[in-house]
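Hey all, quick one. A colleague (J.T.) asked me to put the adenosine monophosphate job into the tracker so the inputs and the structure tokens live in one place instead of scattered across chat threads. No bug as far as I know, just bookkeeping. Sequence used:
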Amino acid sequence: MKIILLGPPGAGKGTQAKILAKKKNLAHISTGDLLRQNVSESTGLGEKARNFMDRGALVPDELVTQMLIQRISQPDTKNGFILDGYPRNLTQAKELDEMLKTHDTRIDLVLYLDTSMPVIIQRLTGRLVCSQCGLNFHIKNMPPKKDMLCDNCGGELYQRTDDNEQTIKKRLAVYKKEFSPLIEYYGKKRKLHRLSADKEAEEVLNKIMQLIEGYNDSLKV
Ligand code: AMP
């Protein structure tokens, strides 16, 4: 199964994708995580991407799509994948479809995690990320059991450099500009399902699971 999670920064795409990937034996592909890894390892791609990411701008399509093609061709995607953070604009959506077509496959579901502005700001400004396993925590909503250490692997937690007020504003402006054409594109293809992601993570997950089961049932008919 191939799923796209769409939604603004702070919608909880990463949190949901990690749980879903485990439950459904799918690969979790986060372009943001892949880019941050490249930045921290100072690869050629990382050096090119760093400046865009620090400004809250999109990394050029050709760089991200090339990186995605390589990731999707890895063996752990055989059973399918969950895309988190890709596509970010219409060009990427079309490139993704073209790429999948050459592999004789397609996206099954696009889940749009609709989130209100106060929730987005509250989540992003308090977000903590594990430097080892990438699990997300929140200073207030989901604090770690031990101060600044991951409950899952004991790794150190950090605040993302782009989770500051100024860059958050820029990221949201980019999102607003790009998101309508994407919603329209997947709406026309009848793949889009909207759900409110303001709720607690568990409630959102239950809704996602229902949508996946509904889709699987529709294939049996
Ligand atoms: P995220 O972790 O998804 O919030 O992404 C963090 C940053 O990585 C974004 O603000 C962009 O600079 C960059 N990025 C992630 N995914 C993409 C993408 N699909 N296209 C362009 N830039 C991206």
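Adding what we noticed when we looked at it: The longest helix spans residues 165-188. Residues 107 and 199 are 26 Å apart (CA to CA).
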